[in-house]
Write a structure and sequence with these properties.
Number of strands: 17
Structural class: alpha/beta
Helix content: 10-25%
Strand order of the largest sheet: 3-4-5-6-13-14-17
Low-confidence stretches: 25-29, 45-90, 92-103
């Protein structure tokens, strides 16, 4: 592959780089150096139906070892992002004379001390007398185990912040860099523990074309299964106008229409997901004492889905200051990628429809999603969130909220050591 590189106003340089694909063992096999064989072996050759895997995801979760939620297999790069909060420095081997060795490798975090880690978050106190009351929580994902099966991720998340408070932290930095999202329920939970007197959610609506309306009529009359049921079951949602759970498919059948991209589209009534956490309030009724002016959020612009449902709510609704690191110098950078709502894979939608044994009629028959003919996947936006209840533009397109409050440039030091960025932000408090 040819690459053309140019630094500043210098003369462009073209270089040729041979490439080779080595797929992850968890997903694929073989090594390829041309697109034709890669496509034939990895895509067309392994075409299969994924939808069956999604028909009863909840039952598969319940049957996992010790009743905990089954974790999906992820590619190494994705796993790296998810584990960013757990920064571990490998100990060097002992010397042949038995003495403890010196670690000549530069450590990633040198200006902060790790206090506690969970499956989603790592907690640090900044070093130095000037920063003794400042701390950082690196929230690397929202992949919390469902509290119906286990509440460890939820309780330990709160515990980590309590530990920071107990150590005298009065100024808090939430580093959500490379956070691709996770559980919407966990995002709601984070919003609630920081702002317990406020709504934990953004209001949302769902696509509601004629086929969706017919699906909802079927899904909303079957035996209610709560979180284990169909995404088209209106009884999973709460009507924003009344704060009452929907009883039937009217959420979809009596919605509204609006103009999107020059076309008239049908949307559901405004709603949000049911949420409650039986383990709250925690023992002693302890609360987190940080106010919006005592907090800051930092990302590198990659903060999507559930991550955004936290970051944008903290910023847009509560006024928490946001920082975006990287990007192009002297140009605004957003602190989030895509702002939540929720998406489903094509296979998940097909699996849901199959589980309902739904067969659309007439013109809707051509709209019914089917399994892809190749080994690939697509993710479709099902729900859109809005900054405020009276907003008409989905947050994903509401440009007034895009830019971070402060744009920080990366340098050769802060690119390797995120705690250098933390120190810059700490000076702003």
């Amino acid at each position: 592959m040819d690459y053309t590189l140019q630094c500043g106003v210098s003369k462009p340089v073209t270089i040729k780089v041979p490439w080779r694909i080595t797929p992850s063992d968890a997903f694929e096999y073989g090594i390829f150096d041309d697109t034709k064989s890669y496509w034939e072996v990895q895509c067309v050759g392994n075409a299969h139906s994924d939808s069956a895997n999604f028909i009863n995801q909840a039952q598969r979760n319940k049957s996992a070892v010790n009743g905990s939620e089954a974790k999906e297999e992820v590619a190494p790069a994705t796993e790296f992002f998810r584990q960013r909060g757990k920064i571990e420095i490998a100990a060097p081997p002992r010397r042949s004379n038995g003495r403890a060795p010196t670690n000549d490798e530069p450590q990633v975090i040198t200006r902060a001390k790790e206090i506690f880690t969970t499956g989603t978050t790592a907690f640090f106190m900044l070093s130095g007398s000037a920063n003794k009351d400042k701390c950082v929580a690196v929230i690397s994902n929202e992949d919390a185990g469902d509290f119906h099966f286990q509440n460890e991720d939820y309780v330990n998340f709160f515990k980590g912040f309590q530990m920071l408070q107990d150590r005298g932290c009065k100024k808090l930095i939430l580093d959500m860099t490379n956070n691709g999202g996770g559980s919407v329920d966990f995002a709601y939970f984070v919003n609630k523990v920081f702002f317990p007197k406020e709504d934990a959610f953004f209001v949302q609506d769902l696509a509601a074309n004629t086929m969706v309306q017919e699906v909802a009529k079927v899904a909303s009359t079957k035996k209610y299964k709560g979180d284990d049921g169909s995404m088209f079951d209106a009884r999973r949602y709460v009507r924003f106008a009344t704060k009452q759970t929907f009883k039937d498919a009217t959420m979809f059948t009596k919605g509204s229409t609006t103009q999107r991209g020059g076309k008239t589209v049908s949307l559901s009534q405004r709603n949000y997901f049911e949420h409650s956490w039986p383990f709250l309030p925690l023992k002693g009724n302890r609360v987190l004492n940080w106010k919006p002016e005592d907090m800051a959020i930092v990302t590198n612009g990659y903060c999507g889905s559930a991550c955004t449902m936290i970051a944008t709510r903290f910023s847009v609704v509560h006024g928490v200051k946001t920082y975006a690191v990287g990007g192009i110098q002297n140009r605004d950078l957003s602190y989030f990628t895509f702002p939540g709502g929720f998406v489903l894979t094509n296979a998940a939608i097909v699996g849901d429809l199959n589980a309902l044994k739904f067969k659309p009629r007439g013109k809707d028959a051509a709209r019914r999603p089917v399994d892809l003919p190749v080994m690939a996947d697509t993710r479709l936006t099902v729900g859109e969130i809005y900054a405020f209840a009276n907003s008409t533009v989905p947050l994903e397109y509401d440009a007034q909220y895009f830019a971070a409050t402060v744009h920080l440039d990366l340098d050769t030091v802060s690119a390797r050591h995120p705690d250098q960025t933390w120190l810059k932000i700490a000076k702003d408090f």
